[in-house]
Amino acid sequence: MNKTIATITAACVGGLLAAPLLASPEEDREVWQTYFEKRFPQVEKTDFVNGVYSIDPVGRENWEAIEEFPPYEAAISDGEEMWNTPFANGKTYKDCFPDGPGVAAQYPHWNKEKGMVMTLPLAINNCREANGEKPLKYKKGPIADLLAYMTYESRGDVVNVEIPEDDPRALAAYEQGKEFYFARRGQLNFACASCHVGNSGTTLRTEILSPALGHTTHFPVYRSKWGEMGTLHRRFSGCNKQVRAKPFPAQGEEYRNLEYFMTYMNNGLELNGPGARK
Ligand code: HEC
After folding, report:
1. How confident is residue 16, by pLDDT bands cut at 50, 70 and 90?
2. Angle at 189 between CA 183 and CA 193, to 5 degrees
3. What is the rounded CA–CA span in Å between residue 142 and residue 49?
4. Best probe residue, ligand 1, of 43, 196, 277 (max atoms within 8 Å of C-beta)
5. For residue range 48-92, what is the model confidence (pLDDT) as tens digits?
6. Nearest residue CA, atom 26 of ligand 1?
7. Are 197 and 277 in contact (CB under 8 A)?
8. Residue 8 pLDDT greater than 90, yes or no
9. Range 19-29 average pLDDT
10. Which residues line ligand 1 (CB under 6 A)?
């Protein structure tokens, strides 16, 4: 999709980021965050990391009760065990992540050498493959456990995604993620922004639509509907299917660029994963 279409689509979903040709990512982020602060003036900015529970007091009570015995606790301890268990060659994840497990705030980032957005799950699999281990599946299972542990160790760190100016491909990846967010698709012809920007706070069937601000801060999540943990790209895929659009591969370029854009929009918020959701 070209930029003109993105502009028009953006204009259709609430006028947000309607001038992407002129705006820098930093200006986008300001428009984006201000939009949600104005739309939900009762919500403390730091509370958007709690998704729909920032705007739904009844759901919140339930959720707070669930958080007293968090359903993601087993995943954190399984993930910790993975972290501490050496690969067949004797090395461990620590050899790939010398700063330790709490590095979620370093992702996603632009990897100049590879010319692509590097996410934490991809870095985990790169580590495994470099050490002769099979890559893990990206949507659920062991990778969600390891992510749960690493994310838990990153709690409280502040999202600070950078778009380096010395490599124009980084800005292009950001722009692609943004276009993806505003592009209508599927039989229902909805963009991500249709639900999570323009209609955020309204009810769709039985669910209140959460504001997009804060969407990436708490993954992986334990979802009651799944009965297990799932990654951010599993959620992307579910939301694509919801409008009867074909989902893209987890950790493919589309979803990585989408994550780059969405996480950049959350700059300044705190990481609070793993999370629990309905
Ligand atoms: C038809 C409406 C609809 C569209 C379009 C849609 N979603 Fe969703 N999405 C939902 C609903 C409903 C939920 C569950 C309730 C909530 O948290 O909003 C949800 C939840 C999410 C969550 C989890 C929020 C949390 O707090 O954990 C993320 C992330 C998300 N959507 C991203 C996306 C992305 C990215 C797209 C575009 C690919 C998209 N959604 C498109 C309806 C939609």
Report:
1. low
2. 45
3. 24
4. 196
5. 999 999 999 999 999 999 999 999 999 999 999 999 999 999 999
6. 51
7. no
8. no
9. 78
10. 51-52, 190, 192, 194-196, 204, 207, 209-210, 215, 221, 235-236, 239-240, 242-243, 258, 277
